[in-house]
Amino acid sequence: MFxxxxxxxxxxxxxxxxxxxxxxxxxxxxxxxxxxxxYSLFYDLQxxxxxxxxxxxxxxxxxxxxxxxxxxxxxxINRAEFAAIVGKAFPQIPRTRRRIEFRDVHVYDWAYHHVAxxxxxxxxxxxxxxxxxxxxxxxxxxxxxxxxxxxxxxPSRDVxxxxxxxxADAHKIPRYAQSKIAAATERSIxxxxxxVRFLHPNKQATRAEVAAFLxxxxxxxxxxxxxxxxxxxxxxxxxxxxSPY
Length: 245
Fold this sequence. Notes:
Elements: H1 9-15, H2 51-59, H3 79-89, H4 112-120, H5 140-150, H6 159-166, H7 178-186, H8 207-218
Helix pairs in contact: 2-8, 3-4, 5-7, 5-8, 6-7
């Protein structure tokens, strides 16, 4: 969990990967789109499986990197950061819930408005007692539930069958998340790298993984995916698959 307590403002901004005066995911001026895996806006993405996706999102003004020119694809993100991301990715989603004030997100916090918007648009919910836990790292299953909830995805097929035929570790998916993850799977939102058969639902989500989910969620029906097809979970798995974890 990230903790901002007792940190000076410059230290906090560097820790968040801010480009001059913003948060790492806040957009810069869009550049000309180049999605080839041989090209990257960030020096640490050369050859990375999600490079094309990340470059696309950066060009669309949804994500940014860090002042040193890196993206840090393996870095985990927290709930506040994710709230900022979905706000940039889906500004057209209507507000369906009344605004509430979370006790641990204050009006002077950088993420205050992002959290409020993510809640009102049904991407994220709080915890009992009007607690949001903005610094809590978000898991892969939580990201998928958030996207499916905000985008109003519902499963059209049997949930258990969808999960068991796509994920060798389906039994690890939290009960509350099963329906939404099944719906996301039907729409090819789920991306599993390096082995498409394993969802790792309780693993903390990395910046690259969140970007991959977003690319799939933002893709139009006839648009070619910028994610390698072998990592998109939408095909039955061999019954003999065993998790390496």
